[in-house]
Amino acid sequence: MKNILKLEELAMLSLALYLFTLTEFSWWIFALFFFAPDLGMLGYLVNTKTGAFTYNILHHKGIAISLYLTGIFLSVPILMFTGIIMFAHSSFDRILGYGLKYSDNFKNTHLGVIGRT
User: Fold this and answer.
1) How confident is the model over 87-115, as a mean pLDDT?
2) What is the pLDDT of residue 1?
3) Where are the beta strands (DSSP E) in the chain?
4) DSSP code of 96?
5) From CA 62, how far away is CA 95, in angstroms rounded?
6) Nearest by Cα to 90 from 68, 70, 73
7) C-alpha to C-alpha distance for 77 and 75, rounded to whole angstroms
8) What distance in Å separates the CA atoms of residue 6 and residue 23, rounded to the nearest whole number?
9) For residues 73-80, average pLDDT
């Protein structure tokens, strides 16, 4: 089952890369901002509850899709770009086994516990 989920995430990452080709932005901009959603981890400097909240907001695919679609409907390329980056990064993370975080511990995700238990 894990391999099927990883293939699904790979398909979503591929979709994000395709959608990016339809934008006006250069690939170096994509590379520069690809890991920007990980800034959500800074919330863990406050506590695990805040960290999980900030991390999950920046890794939530529903929010990413909403930003992208809002960018399309309002003709705001930066919103489209932000949505694509969030979606692509989240898919990449999930291929590696990093899921949305529970508030008790960074290693406790919706995909299971990451790292050594």
Assistant:
1) 87
2) 63
3) 101-102, 105-109, 112-113
4) T
5) 17
6) 68
7) 6
8) 26
9) 98
